[in-house]
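Q: My collaborator sent me two sequences in one message, no labels, and asked for predicted structures for both. Can we handle them in order? The first one she listed is below.
A: Yes, handling them in the order given. First sequence, followed by its structure tokens:
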Amino acid sequence: MNATDANRPEITGTTRLFAVLGDPVAQVQAPTMLNPLFARLGTDAVLVPVHATPERLADVVRGLQRIENLDGLLVTVPHKAALLSFADEIAPAAELSGSTNALRRIDGGRWEAANFDGEGFVRGLRAAGHDPAGRHVCLAGAGGAGCSIAVALLAAGAELTVWDRDAERVRTLVDRLGARWPGRVTGTTAPVAADIAVNATPMGLRPDDPLPFDPAGLRAGTVVADIVMKPRRTALLKAAEERGLPVHYGAPMLAEQLALYREFFRLDRA
């Protein structure tokens, strides 16, 4: 048995199910991280990818939630905001961000939504030596992941400027978070100079995607971070490296969430 076989869960009649929803879904890294965790913990569970298009999302989610041995859902683009409507209870970070990346079954067959994207991202930044406290961060993307990251960055003490092609989405986010953190979050019609520049959009998943912003416009020393995990070295990070800027890859955001998922899904009690 090789190392891959040792980390592959054995499926039995008692196996508990988890699913990660997205469109597309081929890029998700959660199964390669959660399934080995299940194996290490001796948890009889498996996480599988589920490709759900927006027009079929409601049918897919309702069907999954009716599976009696399905304990949790992870959520990726573009469904993080839409999945909130399938939750009976919403944790504070998910409510503030208006999005979720994890739902768990709770008592009575009800579902609770949380969001760990932001906390995972900030933990990853700090582990790499890029503490956002007291720094100016320009965040590209006011979608599900971007909203969660915005909440976590503000909670960590950053000053934040949010940019998105959808101006109304930016206004909505800035108004919501500005009420909680007055004077520390603003919106912009284009990326601005900052200490840390973050891509929280899906741009970079596909080879022909345009850059979410041009690193040529950033000042020397700006940390360029991307939440896209596959490919690891996105076109944005490659362009930033070529200009001599420090970069931060997407994988740490998920890696730092493992402990959070472990607690949220009660894996130590499975």
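Q: And the one she listed second?
A: Here it is, processed independently of the first:
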Amino acid sequence: MERLYCMAVKLSRISAWVGGGLLLLSAAITTVDVILRKLFNISMGGSDEIAGYILAITTSWGLSFALLSRANIRIDALYARLPGKLTIWLDMLGLILVGAFMSFVTWFAIGVWFESVSVGATANTPLQTPLMIPQGLWAAGFIIFMCVLLILLTRVLVLLWRGDHKEVSAIAGIRTVEEEVHDEVASVIDHIKEERRHAC
């Protein structure tokens, strides 16, 4: 189980890096298009369409990393005042509800992709993009998320069976203020070290 969870973490990081790379690509394409319009009064054409596809794809591909990083927003006004054992079961319930909702989203995304493949749909734009490509990548992000979520749920169940409540909170609970502060401080320290290294 530990190895499977580590694989899920690696997969989510790769997904996040791919999404980030696509966003940089989108920014580069848009920048080149704007410069060409401004200086030479010409346009590459389709940069806005490509940016739309990339935004949808990076959103779905970033979900698994957000889940494992516990970066998803949760309202904890009442949560923080509840006993620890109860919050653990609420964390479990939250994962189950997220999984139930995302299973419908994933099923819908796959259905949209399958329909585009079956009819050979293309975008009603000058690029005439075969929609199976962006929709397939978009749906793949949701599939990755569901796989990671199932692994996380299984790990939580195993930890609950062992009675390791602390570890459950560490991987599925709401991030504490202390954890947020620790991450910010660590980020600042890393930034300072990087600046000193370049200064030398």
